Amino acid sequence: MAPRTQRRSVALRTISTPLILAALLVAFALVAWASGSRPFNQTVIDIFLQVIFVVGLYVFVGNSGVISFGHIAFACLGGYVAAWTTIKPMMKGISMPGLPDWLMQLEIPFWAAALAGGAFAAFWALVFGAVLMRLSGIAASIATFAMLAMVNSIYSNWESVTAATSSVVGIPILRVLWPYLVAAILAVFAAWAYSISRHGLALRAARDEPTAAAASGIDIPRARLIAFVISGAIMGAGGALYAHSIGLVTPDTYYLGLTFTTLSMLVVGGMSSLSGAVLGVLILSSLIQALRWLEAGIDIGTTTFALPGGVQEIALGVVMIAILMFRPAGIMGNKELTWPTGRGNDKPGEPGETN
Amino acid sequence: MGSVMQVVFDAASLGSLYALGALGIALIFGVMRLVNFAHGDVIAACVFVLLWPSVDAVAIVFAGNLPWFLLVPFVLAMGAALSVASEVVVFRRFRNANPATMMIASFALGFVIRYFLLMLYSSRPKSISLLPTLSQPVEIMGARIPLLQVITIVVTIGVLFGLTSFLRRTRFGLEMRAAAENFTMARVLGVRANRVIMGAFALSGALAAAIALILGSQTGTANIVMGANVMLMAFIATVIGGMGSLAGAVIAGFLLGAIAVVMQVILPPDARAFRDAFVYGAVILVLIFRPQGLLTARGTKERV
Amino acid sequence: MKRVIAVLAASTCLGSAAFGDDDRIVVGFATAETGFMQAYDKPAQDAAMIRIAEINEAGGLLGKQIEVVNADTKTDRAEGAKAGLSVIDAGADIVVVSCDYDFGAPAALTAESSGLISFFLCAESIKAGIQGVGPNSFSASVLAPVQGATMAQWAYEKKEARSFYRLLDTWTEYNKGICDGFDYMLPQLADATLVGEDTFLNEDASIAAQITRIKGLPEEPDAIMLCTMMPGAVSAIKQLRAAGINSMILNGSGVDGSYWLSAVPDLSNFYTPVQGSIYGDDPNAEVTAFNAKFKEATGGDPSTQYTYPGYVMIDVWAKAVERAGTTETAAVVAELEKMNAEPTLFGPRTFTSELHHQNQARYLIVETNAGKPGVVDEWTISAPIPVADLMK
Amino acid sequence: MSDLHADKVSVAFAGLRALSEVDLTVSSGQIVGLIGPNGAGKTTLVNVLTGFQTPTEGAVTLDGQRLSGLKPNLLRRRGIARTFQGGRLFRDLPVIDNLEVTGVGLGQSRRAAIAEAEAMLEWVGIAPLASRIAGTLPYTDERRVAIGRALMGRPKYLLLDEPAAGMSGQEAADLSALIRRIAGEMGCGVLLIEHNVGLVLNLCDHIVVLDSGAVIETGPPAQIRDSETVRHAYMGTATDTDLPVLEVGA
After folding, report:
1. pLDDT in tens, D209-234
2. Could you say which of A239, D7, D104, D124 would form a disulfide bridge with A78 (CB–CB 3.0 to 4.6 Å)?
């Protein structure tokens, strides 16, 4: 019995997963840096933003098992916080005259806007979550979608504060790769830390066996709410950074398109695995990029080979279906990436360990 | 009196559209536990079969020129065929997958259909003149309403009655109802799973085609994203109706249509733009108070 | 941190390499080659290519041939930013961006931050210019409010319309712009009244409730100001007529074209402002000649008036470059801002240091009668819409 | 003396009465048996006592305090634990984590929960299984894990839903010993639902017999053993009852 009491702490046993994932992200960043191409750099920035979104989504969806169609609403909230807090006061006065005075005068750096975006989104996640987390299954999914649609409808029409459907420009553009890399790595570590926390463990137990979890003293709505707020914060920060990556926000950017992209990446990667969330982004994004290059045309010898327009999307859809056919639980299933020699094959469903 | 009747007709015709959509979603959900996101794209595809593939701004009419008694069955058959094909090619391989996986697979399939249409027809919305005689106003009980609205309502009621008696009276319908309630049990009892599922897909596809015909003649437009909105509303109706309950889906569809129309009527001008926020707020309220849906399908509540 | 600086330095070097290249003049198109914006971008871009070909045939610009580089925005904002960077890295001297403000802005912002001129192919929001993207950004089209104001004043003066109904599709900024112009003009028309207003959404499957409200009026309004765009416009028009409402319908330029008229057979009493006529009846014969040239180059007639701004854009930019004697941004912008009623094939164009857009323009009025569109009149609003009113 | 009490509890499902005016009391350190034929309403009563089912009429009280209406997780925090017929272990998690989940569910940190879980596995006698994935365990071990999980945080009451189903005589005897220790060493009040009537008669201080949702007999084992009512209503024939009694008694 002696070895039992000397188990390494959960954090030590599972730390390899976020480290490997961070290393992967760093590798992507170095490739982009080495290439020196600005469009490619921007592509990798996009990938990092997707990583933030999908990891944020994973925190809730992966641990609770409840599919959320609503998380992009938090990205929207965060994106507009970036607009409210970083655009020059004069420009804000023109595009969003209804802002309160203190906000109108505010001009903060991008990282502070990301934090504020995360906090604002977390606050609304708490408000919405307090109502929605009592629901389960598909009713919960639809309720989260209704939340997204509500946020979208409000932001698309609240002329004086969000400039309605019009693009709000003037957000300082940040075209350097590293802040996005840092943010993506932070998101990965935040998700990992949540997963191994007691709240994460309780929520995963409730996901697999809700009845027994309730009989174990777990307050399921509360456990879900905690995950909802944390993932809302990550999405909010990601939404703010997204605004800085292209320099503008519109409600439309944060709606169905992004919702389905992020959900697809999560499910294809493996819904209940942090590694799956990150790999889903990296693999699908790389695939999309490769198809785009093909579509733009590449020279093979003297002939140019190019795919006709639309083929890229069709191919993407077909590949997604094929992956799900052969791996219905996603590329990673519920496994995590770990050191190949690592012990600890005793805890699946928890980052850092394999079955 | 006339204006009240008018609102009732407006609500009923929009509700009909959502109810038909919800029925198409609920049928497949019943037998497969699949939320079919490709449904909206099947609707769009059904409109485009009327046109000859071309990327020009002007639509080249193809089947759209047929007389109505050929055109309607043709479109219904195309919808059913496309839907069944999606079952055979894709969904059959997902019978044992979890709902999230199926949902994303259906979304990916919808994506493929949409971009296939884009390749053939371009993304530019095209105008079509579908059943133009329906665009005439008629007078009913003091309300002057477009003939199409009346036909939409009548068709929906007809479809509901037809489907009900089909499910009640025929052996096939019985099998389908049994499967919707408890698929594993139904299989044990000898229900032919493939046949039932294909039947559900065929019916669902035909319903999508019916929506396509209504939408097409109402809006005069063929647009590759035209099914998305109805699909979303139908999906919501299916859930608040009680997943798996066909009657619930229909009732909820009508309810959603009514909420949307009534909001448009009663909200002050400044708030009207926020109509959808109110509609979705109402959806959340319904879910909070009836998380199992308006009509709970038997066997969906988990037992301890 | 050092690495961050290194990257910054590296990207700046790249940028200046592009600026320093003086042997050629490059027009960069960061426009949609796929996705739904393609339908709007391609015709305007084709028209721009025609003007570029004309200039090159006539000996080029500043004695150099104009080269073209393309990057696809895929009708996606994030891709738009990338496309902007791509054409800038390929040495573009001017970045031409998508027709729509929302979809063109990301690429225009990259141009702005690289100190380059950006030109929207046909955006009609004031933000597609100084007030939004920045001091080096222009649009080749006319502001949407001018369209709404033009139609209101013309209908009042020429058609004796007195009672107006305002039906707004809140989907886009463009739609709201049309109604803003209408709102600006209406109070200036003595004894004209707004008898009601309503909103809808472009994607609404049915606008029956909105129609019921119109029918609830004691009298059918003389004119309905319909602020919407494709594809919802067809649906709204069809449903209005199907409900038996026969008021004249006033629109923005977004509904120009005959390609959709089959959906509303025998449409009448329907009016649209256009910069030039695609129907072969433009009062300016050169427009008809351009239409022929367009057909020769692309194999089809222009399908809407949004083809024309692309031609105007290259035209005015090339003139400014010629006058400045350089493609250097500040000099070209200065020359553009000197243009006052500069004649172009599609009406005079004015740019000032306050506004890189047209707040007054000559419009042809196209009436559709029994399903046949044709030019019936031309109208220029009596005074430019003040910038302050445009910024509301 | 503290007790868990069902006070005239009735439950109706869509007009059907699953329980009618059932009275039942479990006190600290006491082992109460709940027996009755299939469909008698035993599990429904456990569900009522643990918050999974709200009684249509009547109430559940703990030391005189009314509990009905509270959610299961709150009742668990008040010290009322249960096991399930189907086991309902967290199948993908290792055994130790199954226990740990209850620890964190009760508000412990993971570190504290792991420490208690390890001690608890030792106490229940299944420490070597700690790293096994719960879903791969044999039947008997599953029951012990479930009991261990329910004992985390030292509940005041433990409701066991058919813990001995499918066990051999020896296994059932080991289980009996464990249940005695739970009542004796932990001072936990135990409510035992069991089909193995012999085990119940042998182990319990007090027995309640349910039939068709109503209490038909209650009293010490000797009284139940001799009750004609029970014999008649519950077993149908006398011979069936004797078998298990003899088996365990031997």
Report:
1. 998 889 998 999 999 888 888 877 66
2. A239
Same domain, yes or no, for C172 and C239?
yes
- Chain B residues close to A147, C-beta within 8 Å: 280, 284
Residue B192: both structure tokens together: 């032919």
The Cα–Cα gap between B276 and A87 comes to 29
Interface check C352 vs B, CB under 8 A: no
pLDDT reported for residue C20:
45
Q: How far apart are CA D72 and CA D55, in angstroms?
A: 13
Contact list in D for residue B296 (CB cut-off 8 A) is: none
Site from B92, B235, B239 to mutate, A interface, most A CB atoms within 10 angstroms? B239
- Give the separation between CA A318 and CA A312, rounded to whole angstroms: 10
Range(s) of the domain holding residue C247: 144-274+362-390
**Radius of gyration of chain A from its Cα atoms, rounded to whole angstroms:** 21
Q: Give A60→chain D minimum CA distance, Å.
A: 18
Chain A: closest CA distance from residue C191 (Å): 30
For chain A, say whether B105 makes contact (Cβ under 8 Å).
Answer: yes
Q: Which residues of C touch B218 (CB under 8 A)?
A: 205-206, 235, 238-239
Number of compact structural domains in chain A: 1
Q: Which residues of D touch B301 (CB under 8 A)?
A: none
Interface contact C212-B10, CB threshold 8 A: yes
Q: Which CATH number fits domain D3-87+155-246: 3.40.50.300, 3.60.21.10, 3.40.1360.10, 3.30.1160.10?
A: 3.40.50.300
User: Is the CB of C217 inside 8 Å of chain B's CB atoms?
Assistant: no
Nearest to D216 by CA among D15, D41, D4, D53: D41
Side by side, the strands of the sheet bearing D3-13 are: D16-27, D3-13, D57-62, D65-66
**Residue C240 at interface with chain B, using a CB cutoff of 8 Å:** no
pTM equals: 0.90
Q: Is the Cβ pair C206, B13 closer than 8 Å?
A: yes
- What is the distance between the alpha carbons of residues B82 and B106, in angstroms, rounded to a whole number? 13
Q: Is B120 helix (H, G, I), strand (E, B) or coil?
A: helix
Flag whether residue A326 sits within 8 Å of chain B, measured between CB atoms.
no
Q: Which residues make Cβ contacts (< 8 Å) with residue D196, sequence separation at least 6?
A: D164, D165, D167, D172, D244, D248
**CATH code of residue C43:** 3.40.50.2300
Local confidence pLDDT in tens for the 392 residues of chain C: 444 444 433 333 344 344 444 678 999 999 998 877 888 899 999 999 999 999 999 999 999 999 999 999 988 888 899 999 999 999 999 999 999 898 999 999 999 999 999 999 989 999 899 988 999 999 989 999 999 999 999 999 999 999 999 999 988 889 999 999 999 999 999 999 999 999 999 888 889 889 989 988 999 999 999 999 988 999 999 999 988 899 999 999 999 998 888 888 889 999 999 999 999 999 999 999 999 999 999 988 898 999 999 999 999 999 999 999 999 999 999 999 999 999 999 989 999 999 999 999 999 999 999 999 999 999 999 999 998 888 86
Query: SS3 breakdown of chain B: % helix, strand, coil, rounded to 5?
Result: 70, 5, 25
Low-confidence ranges of chain D (pLDDT < 70): 1, 233-250
Predicted local confidence at residue C38, as pLDDT: 85
Instruction: Spell out which residues of chain B touch residue C201, defining contact as CB-CB under 8 Å.
Output: 275-276
Chains that touch C (3 or more CB pairs under 8 A): A, B
Does the distance separating the beta carbons of C239 and B146 come in below 8 Å?
A: yes
Chains D and B touch (3+ CB pairs under 8 A): yes
Chain B touched by A130 (CB under 8 Å): no
D34 CB neighbour count, 10 Å cutoff: 28
Residues of A in contact with C71 (CB under 8 A): 39
Can you tell me the distance from the alpha carbon of D207 to that of D199, in angstroms, rounded to the nearest whole number?
12
Q: Which residues of A touch D113 (CB under 8 A)?
A: 198
pLDDT the model gives residue A8: 66
